[in-house]
Structure formats: structure tokens, C-alpha cells
Design brief:
By secondary structure, the chain is an alpha+beta fold. The chain is 47% helix and 6% strand. It contains 32 helices and 12 strands.
Length: 914
């Protein structure tokens, strides 16, 4: 395909203000929702083995995500969550792996440094890195809703206006008038949003009024900018503080609504969001293509003005100026109208995609009545299934009303705490097949669910097709050949280098993965008496892999995952986690009970009785707060796990509560683990423990920031490739024995986890790594193919592309009814389109950071404290005000290497011994 020349208003690379080359990136880092991704990018809402698709944001992590901001091409339309009205992300002074080539005509000091680093990487057993290093969290932020996806709280990504200012005002004025006591009109200085009092009926009038206020403020700011530019009196403060103010006011209100939709969904709330999302998008478009604003940022970037700015302010100006260029500020006339129309349509499609997926997940349930059907399932899974039977059908089914773990009946769903134990432990092969197929076919042409308004099937296939078509059209309006080019224009890799990375890893991992499958088949067909023998004449199918892989791991390492759960009750895990935070970062974390005076004086409001609220103190003084919503509620709550902002740290006078110098940051952490059952606390799988640590790492970067420039505080303006660094860093402590001893205490006896059991857990850490990596490579490859080489206007289908990908990347043949793309919310409802490949490199940073603690000696309390304080002052404290590579070098005293990552993943050495 012949590439079009890059248009003048869309430079592939520009010189940054510091002279380093920068990659424009519109993915917003403000109020990003991090979705938990299970096993390297798959969300907590997807099966760990075989193919089930990355679903609803995540982390990326995942599907999680991520929730997460969406890419600029259509993020203006996604408006996926809460606050990110004007936040944007940039890449500057990037360090890149050896196969990633910096683009751009100029060679700079920054890029030269990066290239020297990558030449070093190539000398460090690159083949081994390609073979194994990307399993674990491959290409996604682990914990990143981030499949970050429609529950994210990223609000706007600024892309041009389809109407004039007067039209904007007219449209918003037509909306219902808000009452003065509407909870969504809470003042900017109010720290905690009124989660408990917001009702569906408040959304339309409340958000309409916020939009009217923001529109008036934007018009006034544009007039002020024009006047100041004419008089040559424009200052950074006149622009940035005002942008931050009405960004914050509108996006916190909209973020409250979007958050409630993710954790307390209802038909009425969903309808209200559907009604207002187009209006919110319209304002984002209006803001994004504001010529006065672009002229203001451009003016501040010029010599003579630039020198007046602090480093943080320079980063903000860089981000805003480049975001405006890539948002289409240079488009005019029919092109601008088409671009904006497409952007709004994509917002609707992505919301519908998420709703369809959530509805499909919620609609499925399977009632089992005989003990033979549930043979092999652990007691915890049966307890949850009996509780589900009561809660879901207890009022209409007498047997379900009396359900017990011992005698049933048992009801299973596609929610991960219910689904995954069936796939890993159920002896009944037909049951595993039924559950697997139901999960694989969600929101596809196989559904029987219909939209009540249109009577159309809730099938995501036509939505995907239209999303791809609109992305391509908008990319071409901006002067690019395909959408992947627009996405990669703001990332470190080129399309060629990304594909080369994927192919190198595929070539290196295919044979090991085939060997893993061969070994698994041999193991499955061995004679034994504990579970049904696998038919000797048959081949392993996708629904067999998780079951026999679990049995093989148990046989090889002599322990069961279920053996760990009694040692990881949520209350004790939190105690251990908070003690670790105290040791590392010198902070105290205390829970605020609803009966505490502080709870009322702060105006704390929660959305569900399960939600916990915590205060973080340093030297006796509050520095931040966070919510924790730990348990699964499949009827009303989205799957996965994520962290997001509730309020950001800022010194902006218009946003700081009275009597304070700064507004303290607030985060929320959302998980989906099994709730307490009967008198037992919530008992966590080890994967859920890692997830909690992961999301807490994200929250720490937001909550412990010392940056007071609101547009660059915490996770805001942190480059996408580095944003997973603190989260993946914290996960390393899940394998630190001293940390485990503080929290892995049997919920009944209080005994520590035995040494022999713990050694087995550590030894099994990298089990079936090649297979896990291939799975993520499949996701990465099909993502790039759909956004680069696939023409949605041709006769070729998306399933043809997936089949071609499967032939190259899968060790098992693709099933004819495989519809995982219909649940791949990472790329069709979140921020990972043409970018799913890119999330490994934060793990290089995080592993290297953790190595600093290993070098100090994890058992040396004083040295660990010293290194922890330095980590808090740099990685956690500096936020987006300093480029991540510079922050890393301040912590480590050098550039990053892959040594720690290779070592942590057991590469090139002997396997851990028991």
C-alpha cells in the first residue's frame, strides 16, 4: 500500500521544547480507568486458557482498562468514563526496545540516548527475550481495565467541533432545567462526589446544566485568549488554570455518572447516559478544535514564552499543542463535519458494544442439581454457586431458596469467580464445553438477546464492522492511510517494527508452545483414578486445556490453587498490604467507618454497602483518600478490575477547598472477587491478591503525587508505556516472603502459610509461559491487521482475518463459532486499538525498579525503607510533570535494562527448585 505523505498539520515527530523528539499521544492520562487484565492483558472477565476474548474493560489489565482512555481517532467519541475532558498524553524523550525505530527527520540527543539503550538490549540475549519475556503481562497493562474500555473514566479527548458556539449553547439550553439541589451540580471545591444521592433522573438535567456552564466558560476563555494574544499579554496561568477548572467541574460530574454505570448499572441509568453522551461528545469536539485555544498553546511554546515555564508546565503545553494538531484542528468545512459526525457515531457504537457484552454476560446462568454434575469443583465454588442460586432465583424457585453448598442446587454464571472454577476443576467435560462456548459466543450472532427499542439482536459483529469503517475514514481525513498509522503516530513503535516484534516473538515461542501442548496431551491421557480419563482417540479441545493444565500443575508442583485461599482473606491481605505501604513509603492507612466523625465532616458518600473508604496519612496529616469496592455483583457491576480518579491533586485556587493550599487526591479501586459467604470472609485466589496489589500501585501514583500542577499531577500526562510501572512494581511483593508473612494468615487458625507450600507457589510462577505468550500475540496481531491491512469496505470479513491470524499463532485450530472479537472490548470499546502490542515495556521498568530493592536486600528493613522513600519521591511523587525516563534515572541512577525482567521470568537459568 502506498503511504500518503504526512500532512503539514500532523507531523509524525516534532522537536520537543527540550530538544528531544516526542511522540504525540492523545490517550488521556487524566482520570484513566485501569482495567485488570488477567495473564497479560486478558481481562478478569475472560478465561485464562484457550480463547475467550478479552472482554469488558480492563488492564489492560485489563478486559479490563481499562477502561483507560481511548485513542484519539475516535476517543472524542468514546467519552468512556469520567474526567478527562481535556487531558492528553504525550511521549517525549522515549526509550525504546531495539526493534522499535524512532521516526522523524531530526536526530536529537534524547533519541540518541534511547537508541544507545536499545543497542544494549540487543546484546542481552535478545533471542531469549523474544522467546519468553512477553508472557505474564504481554502487551497489556496487567490489571489494566485498564480493558481500561467503556467503564473507564476518561471523558474527552478533544477533537474538533461540528457546530458553532451559538449552536452549542442552543442545544444545551433545550435540555431539561436542573433543580438547584441536583447532586451533579456539586461545587468544584467539594472533595467527595455525592455517589449515594445521584439518581438516574438527575443525570440529564444535571449534565445538561454542567455543559451549559462549561460552554459559557469556554466562550469567555476564547474571547480572553484572543484579546490577550492581540495585546501580547497572554500567560500560562490565564489558559491552563481556566482549562483545568471547567475540565474538572464537568468531568467530575460526568465521571460520577459513568462510574455509577460501571458499578451500579440499571436500565434507567443506562438510558440517561445514552441520552447525554452525544451532548458530552459534542462539547469535547467543540473544545478540541478551538482555534483560540490552539493558538494559545502554540504561543506559549514559542521562544521567549517557553523559558518562563516550569518543567511541568512545559510538559503540559507540549501535550496540549500536539493534541490539538492531532485532533484535527486543521480540518475545515466538509472534512471537519464528517470527522466529527463519525466521532459521535463511534461513541454510540462503543457504548452499545459494552452494553451488549455486559448484557450477554449477565443473561447466562446454568442451574445444576446433581452432585455428579459438579464433581471436582472446590467447596468455595459450590458455596458461591449456592449463594448465586439464592440471590438470582430464590424468590421464584423454592429449591433455589433453600440451596446449600453440599446439596445444591447450584447456579453458575459467566462472571469470572463463577466461570473460571468450572473451567479449571469440573470433571464433567460436557459442562466445561457448554460454559466455554457460552463465554466464547457472547454478544455475537449466536445471541438470542434483543434490543428492546430496535428489536435488533445484541450482536457486536455489525458494530465492529462500522467502528472499523469509521476509524479508517477518520484516519484518512487526517491524511493517513489507515487507522494504525494514526494510533502509532503517537506511540514509540512504527507499524513495521510492531509487526516485527510480534513475528519475532511468535517464531521464538511457537515450538515451545507446541511442546507444551504435546506434554499436556500426554499428561491428560495418563491413567489415573482421581478424575475421568481423557478419551485416547480424541484431541484436546479448548475447554480441556484449563482443566488438564491445572491438574498438570498440581502434579508437577504438588499443590492446588484452592490450598492457598484459606490463607488470603481480604481483611488480612489489606492489613499486610497497608503494612508494606507503611514500610516502603512511610504512610499510614486507616479505614473511615460510616460512624466516624470524619466520614460526615468530609462529606463522604458511597454507592454500595460493600464499599470501604480509607484515609492515607503521612506524619499524622492526611495526604489522600481512596475507595475500595472489592466484590463481584454481576447483576449491576461490570467485570474486571480498575483504578480511577475521583479527584486529582491541584493547587488551582478555584478548585481547592476553603482553608487549604491544595486539593487532596482521591482514587477508587474496583475489583470483582468472590464476596464473603456465610460467616466466612472473602477468600482470595492468589491471582486476586496480585490484582489488588496491582490496582493499589496505580492508586499510589495518583495519591502520593507531590505535583501541584493539576494537569500533570499523579497519573496525568504519564506516558502510556510507563503508566503500568507502579502497578506491576507492586505485584513483585506478592512473591516476597516477608510481605507474604504479614498477610498470608489462615483465616481460622491464624497460622502462616507453610514454607513448603510457598516454595511450590514460587516455583510454579512461570508455568506454560510460551502458550500464554502466543495467546497475547494472537490478540496483538489481529488488532494490527484489522486496523492496517483489513479493508472494512471489501467482501472480506473480520472472521477471515481472525482465522488467518489463528493459523499463525494458535496451537489449537480455531473453532468455527469462535467469536472472541465480539468481546474484545480492549480494542473496540477501549483505548487499545492498534496498540494492544505495546504494554510490555512498563514491565521492564517495574522489574528494574524492584531490582533496586533486591540489591538493597529485601530482608534488610532499613535499606528497604531507604529505597522505598526514594521510589516514593521519584516514581510516585513526580507524576506527569517529568518524563518517565528521566524519573526512572532519578530513581535508579541509570537507564533501564532488561536484566531484572529476564531474571524474574526465569530466563536463561535453571527452573526454581522446590
Amino acid at each position: 500500500m502506498t503511504k500518503r505523505p504526512t500532512p503539514a498539520h500532523l507531523p509524525q515527530k516534532e522537536k520537543s521544547m527540550s530538544g528531544a523528539s516526542i511522540s504525540p499521544d492523545l490517550i488521556s492520562s487524566r482520570n484513566r480507568h485501569y482495567e485488570l487484565t488477567n495473564n497479560a492483558g486478558a481481562s478478569d472477565d475472560e478465561p485464562i486458557y484457550g480463547r475467550g476474548g478479552a472482554s469488558v474493560d480492563n488492564d489492560l489489565n485489563t478486559t479490563g482498562t481499562t477502561y483507560s482512555g481511548a485513542d484519539y481517532d475516535d476517543t472524542a467519541s468514546t467519552i468512556e468514563g469520567a474526567a478527562n475532558l481535556f487531558g492528553r498524553r504525550t511521549s517525549s524523550s522515549s526509550w525504546l526496545p531495539g526493534w522499535v525505530v524512532q521516526r522523524g527527520p531530526s536526530s536529537t540527543a534524547g533519541s540518541s540516548t534511547a537508541k544507545n539503550f536499545f543497542r544494549g538490549l540487543e546484546q542481552q540475549s535478545r533471542v531469549r527475550l523474544c522467546a519468553y519475556a512477553v508472557f505474564g503481562f504481554c502487551f497489556a497493562c496487567f490489571g489494566f481495565s485498564f480493558i481500561f474500555p467503556a467503564s473507564s473514566t476518561a471523558l474527552f479527548q478533544r477533537f474538533g467541533a461540528p457546530f458553532s458556539t451559538s449552536q452549542t449553547t442552543a442545544k444545551t439550553n433545550k435540555m431539561p432545567e436542573a433543580k438547584k439541589d441536583n447532586p451533579l451540580l456539586f461545587p468544584a471545591s467539594q472533595l467527595f462526589p455525592p455517589f449515594a444521592t445521584v439518581k438516574a433522573d438527575d443525570v440529564v438535567p444535571g449534565i445538561a446544566e454542567q455543559l451549559r456552564i462549561a460552554t459559557v466558560a469556554l466562550e469567555a476563555l476564547e474571547a480572553s485568549i484572543t484579546e490577550a494574544l492581540t495585546a501580547n499579554t497572554l500567560t500560562y496561568e490565564k489558559v491552563a488554570l481556566e482549562v483545568e477548572r471547567f475540565d474538572d467541574e464537568l468531568s467530575r460530574a460526568w465521571g460520577t455518572v459513568k462510574h455509577l454505570k460501571s458499578v451500579a448499572d440499571s436500565p434507567e441509568l443506562r438510558q440517561a447516559v445514552d441520552d447525554m453522551q452525544p451532548k458530552v461528545i459534542e462539547f469535547g469536539l467543540r473544545m478540541g478544535q478551538s482555534e483560540p485555544l490552539f493558538k494559545a498553546w502554540d504561543y506559549l511554546a514559542q521562544p521567549g514564552q517557553l523559558e518562563k515555564l516550569t518543567p511541568s508546565q512545559k510538559r503540559i503545553v507540549e501535550s496540549e499543542r500536539l493534541a490539538a494538531k492531532l485532533s484535527g484542528v486543521g480540518l475545515t468545512g466538509e472534512k471537519k463535519e464528517t470527522y466529527n459526525k463519525n466521532a459521535k457515531r463511534m461513541g454510540d457504537l462503543k457504548t452499545k458494544f459494552t452494553n451488549n457484552l455486559q448484557d450477554a454476560t449477565k443473561a447466562f446462568s446454568l442451574k445444576l442439581t446433581t452432585k455428579a454434575e459438579v464433581a471436582g469443583l472446590p467447596a468455595s465454588a459450590l458455596s458461591l454457586a449456592a449463594q448465586t442460586a439464592k440471590s438470582k432465583f430464590g424468590e421464584s424457585d423454592a429449591a433455589c431458596k433453600e440451596a446449600t453448598p453440599e446439596n445444591g442446587p447450584w447456579v453458575f454464571t459467566l462472571d469470572m469467580p463463577s466461570y473460571l472454577p468450572v473451567m479449571q476443576h469440573a470433571h464433567d467435560r460436557a459442562l466445561r464445553q457448554k460454559m466455554y462456548q457460552a463465554h466464547l459466543k457472547r454478544a455475537s450472532e449466536f445471541t438470542e438477546l434483543k434490543d428492546e427499542k430496535t428489536n435488533e439482536l445484541k450482536d457486536n459483529t455489525p458494530l465492529i464492522q462500522e467502528i472499523l469503517k469509521l476509524r479508517l475514514e477518520n484516519a484518512q481525513l487526517l491524511g493517513y492511510t489507515n487507522y494504525a498509522e494514526t494510533s502509532l503516530a503517537k506511540k514509540m513503535a512504527t507499524l513495521d517494527s510492531a509487526n516485527k516484534l510480534i513475528e519475532d516473538l511468535r517464531a521464538s515461542s511457537m515450538q515451545p508452545a507446541l511442546k507444551e501442548l504435546e506434554d499436556l496431551e500426554k499428561f491428560a491421557k495418563k491413567e489415573q483414578s482421581e478424575y475421568p480419563a481423557f478419551p485416547a482417540s480424541e484431541k484436546l479441545m479448548q475447554w480441556d486445556v484449563p482443566f488438564y493444565a491445572e491438574r498438570m500443575k498440581e502434579a508437577e508442583f504438588s499443590f492446588k490453587e484452592e490450598d492457598l485461599k484459606p490463607y488470603f482473606s481480604l481483611p488480612k491481605v489489606l492489613v499486610g498490604l497497608f503494612q508494606l505501604a507503611k514500610k516502603l513509603f512511610d504512610i499510614d492507612i486507616v479505614e473511615l467507618a460510616s460512624t466516624d466523625a470524619a466520614f460526615g465532616s468530609l462529606g463522604v458518600s458511597i454507592w454500595h454497602p460493600d464499599v470501604k473508604v480509607f484515609e492515607i496519612k503521612r506524619e499524622g496529616k492526611a495526604v489522600s483518600y481512596f475507595f475500595l469496592d472489592p466484590y463481584s455483583r454481576p447483576e449491576t457491576k461490570k467485570g474486571g478490575a480498575w483504578m480511577d480518579e475521583v479527584a486529582g491533586r491541584t493547587a488551582n485556587p478555584s478548585l481547592v477547598p476553603s482553608g487549604n493550599n491544595v486539593r487532596l487526591p482521591i482514587a477508587h479501586m474496583v475489583c470483582n472477587q468472590s464476596p464473603p459467604i456465610g460467616d466466612e470472609p472473602s477468600l482470595m485466589t492468589f491471582r486476586e491478591v496480585e490484582t489488588l496489589f496491582h490496582e493499589f500501585g496505580h492508586a499510589l501514583q495518583h495519591m502520593l503525587t507531590k505535583e501541584s500542577e493539576g494537569l500533570a499531577a499523579g497519573i496525568r500526562k504519564v506516558e502510556w508505556d510507563a503508566v503500568e510501572q507502579p502497578s506491576q512494581f507492586m505485584e513483585n511483593f506478592c512473591y516476597d516472603r516477608s510481605t507474604i508473612d504479614k498477610m498470608a494468615l489462615h483465616y481460622k487458625s491464624g497460622e502462616k502459610i507453610p514454607d513448603d507450600l510457598w516454595k511450590k507457589v514460587v516455583a510454579a510462577k512461570n508455568f506454560r509461559a510460551a502458550s500464554m505468550m502466543l495467546r497475547q500475540l494472537h490478540f496483538s496481531h489481529v488488532d494490527l491487521e484489522l486496523h492496517s491491512n483489513y479493508d472494512p469496505n471489501s467482501g472480506k470479513s473480520i472472521w477471515d482475518v481472525d482465522l488467518e491470524t489463528s493459523k499463525k499463532f494458535d496451537v489449537l485450530p480455531l473453532l468455527p463459532y469462535d467469536r472472541f472479537l465480539c468481546s474484545f472490548a480492549h480494542i473496540f470499546a477501549g483505548g487499545y486499538a492498534a496498540g494492544y502490542f505495546s504494554y510490555k515495556w512498563a514491565e521492564v521498568l517495574s522489574a528494574d525498579c524492584f531490582a533496586a530493592f533486591e540489591e538493597a536486600g529485601l530482608n534488610d528493613e532499613e535499606k528497604v525503607k531507604s529505597v522505598g522513600r526514594k521510589f516514593a519521591d521519584t516514581i510516585l511523587g513526580l507524576g506527569g510533570g517529568v518524563a518517565p525516563l528521566e524519573v526512572f534515572k532519578l530513581f535508579r541512577g541509570r537507564e533501564p535494562t532488561v536484566d531484572a525482567l529476564l531474571r524474574h521470568n526465569g530466563l536463561g537459568g535453571e527452573k526454581p527448585k522446590l
